[in-house]
Structures are given as structure tokens and as C-alpha cells.
Specification:
Arc Repressor Mutant, subunit A, D-Maltodextrin-Binding Protein, domain 2, two-stranded antiparallel sheet, 11 helices
């Protein structure tokens, strides 16, 4: 077994296609087939099941894929640890999070990071937690900023901050536009515009409704806060959002925020990254900045 064999195996496993692996690696398909056959002979197990011209991983293949990925992650970490100098003069950091965090949590941290380390490139990817977690595991992303809890194999989770929610309405709302607070049970009286059910934040809100014992009137669901806020602003419904996500609109009079009187709703935000013996210096520096800016929130 050698690294080239493992590289070919990973390419086939991730694409579930010998043809696609051949294209990505610029290697003849017959050569990849020979290497996989040698690997299967050495291990004494079939790694792929071929059914009607489709390729599937066997249980043995899934086990090898998990360990093969770890081999390349450790090789990358070894190279980083050897090549890193005291000053961060180069590199690439890839960060993933939901849109709300991208809009309100990331900018001040990334701005300061760029001031300190101008030669380290930054990439930001948005998406649902369930989509981004496998990318952290597979070393396609370096850091995730997610709503907790996160329970996923192979990753490290560090709590970062706690965000309180407020009830958000249009300033023109006939009942709520001039109130400063609202009992939690009264939320059930109003049509709600909420995050989609797949969102981690929505799950936290639904749990809150169960805790309070109310059946919400859900009028609309949207993928992110950028869609929800303008719908609330034109008085199509009421919502629950993290207070920092509406501070600007409230200050400008575009939205109106009401505190929850008797029950507090909050979500925990955490940093998620790959479990490893060595954390690259650029990533460690970014984590420190997140803690400095948001650790006391």
C-alpha cells in the first residue's frame, strides 16, 4: 500500500466513479483499476461494489476511506508544522458558516485578521451546518462557525458566544410597533416568518416553543435572515432573530425589536475545526481573534 494507491482510492470513493477519478487525477482509468485491484488483494477485502454500472463503497471501503483521509490530513499538518515560521507570511484559511454568522460575526474578525496577516488568503463558504461539517472532516474547510450543539465525528467544538433573541416586528405593526416587550406566550397570536426547518437556529426556536407550550402560527419560512427581515419590515409577519442581526435596522427605524418578558431565548455559537495534534498557526491566530471579539458576548 502506498500514497498513490490511497490517492486513487480516495478519488474513486469520493466520486463513486472510476471515470471521474481518472479525469480528476489525469491518470488512465485502467491504471486506477489496477491499483485498486492490488489494494483489494493486499487487504483481502472488496472496497467497491459494482451494481449496474454504478459504484458503491463496501463497509471495508468506508473504513479505509476514513483512515486514508486521516493519512493525508496528517501529512498536510506535518508539512505545515515544518514549514511555518514565526510570522504568518503565507497560507490559506477556508471558513464556513450560515449566512447570519457571515453577515454579523465574521466581518469584524476577518477585517482584523487581514490587518494582522495581509498575506494569508481567506475564503468564506456559506451553507447549512449539515453540508459544511463533512467539508471540515474532509479538510476542505479549516473552520466552521455554527449554532450549537454540534455532534460530529472527528471535529473539535469550542463554544464561542451566546446570542439572545428578540421579537422583531414592523414599526407600523398596529399592536407591536410601540411596545417594548412581549410575554412569550403572546407570540402565538401573530403570524410568524421563521428560518426553514432544516436550519439549526430554527430547531432551537422550535424547542423554545415547546418549552413555553405554544403552537406557533407559521406564515412563511425562509432560508436566511436577509430574506426574513424585509418581509417583516413590510408587515407580512413577525419573527424571532438574534439581537445583533437587527441592530442596524432598529437604529434606522426600519424594524422594531421587543424583548421577551418572562422567558429568554438564546442560541450558543461555537467554532468547529478538525481534531488534530497540530493546529496550523494561521488557524490558531484566527480562533484567538474570534475569542477576543466575541468570547464575551
Amino acid at each position: 500500500m502506498d500514497l498513490r494507491q490511497l490517492e486513487m482510492f480516495i478519488a474513486v470513493a469520493e466520486n463513486l466513479s472510476f471515470t471521474e477519478a481518472s479525469r480528476k487525477l489525469h491518470v488512465a482509468q485502467s491504471a486506477i483499476s489496477r491499483k485498486i485491484a492490488l489494494l483489494e488483494r493486499e487487504l483481502g477485502e472488496k472496497l467497491f461494489q459494482r451494481v449496474s454500472r454504478r459504484v458503491y463503497l463496501t463497509p471495508a471501503g468506508e473504513t479505509l476511506l476514513r483512515h486514508a483521509r486521516r493519512v493525508f490530513i496528517e501529512l498536510r499538518n506535518a508539512g505545515l508544522e515544518i514549514s511555518e515560521t514565526t510570522q504568518l507570511s503565507r497560507g490559506l484559511l477556508r471558513i464556513g458558516s450560515g449566512l447570519t454568522a457571515c453577515m454579523y460575526l465574521l466581518p469584524p474578525v476577518l477585517e482584523r485578521f487581514r490587518e494582522y496577516y495581509p498575506n494569508v488568503e481567506l475564503e468564506v463558504v456559506t451553507g447549512p451546518t449539515e453540508t459544511l461539517l463533512p467539508q471540515i472532516r474532509d479538510n476542505l474547510l479549516d473552520l466552521g462557525v455554527f449554532t450549537l450543539p454540534v455532534d460530529y465525528p472527528g471535529v473539535q467544538v469550542t463554544p464561542l458566544c451566546r446570542e439572545e433573541f428578540v421579537v422583531v416586528a414592523s414599526p407600523r405593526h398596529p399592536e407591536l410597533g410601540h411596545r417594548k416587550s412581549l410575554p412569550a406566550v403572546e407570540i402565538a397570536r401573530y403570524p410568524l416568518i421563521l428560518f426553514s426547518r432544516a436550519a439549526a437556529t430554527r430547531r432551537r426556536i422550535d424547542a423554545f416553543f415547546r418549552e413555553v407550550g405554544i403552537s406557533p402560527r407559521i406564515a412563511m419560512e425562509a432560508e436566511n435572515v436577509a430574506v426574513i427581515k424585509p418581509l417583516v419590515a413590510i408587515n407580512l409577519g413577525v419573527t424571532l432573530l438574534p439581537v445583533r442581526s437587527v441592530e442596524g435596522e432598529v437604529r434606522r427605524g426600519e424594524l422594531h425589536a421587543l424583548a421577551l418578558e418572562d422567558r429568554k431565548l438564546a442560541r450558543e455559537i461555537g467554532l468547529v475545526y478538525l481534531k488534530a495534534d497540530h493546529i496550523p498557526k494561521a488557524l490558531a491566530a484566527l480562533i484567538r481573534l474570534f475569542r477576543k471579539h466575541h468570547g464575551g458576548a
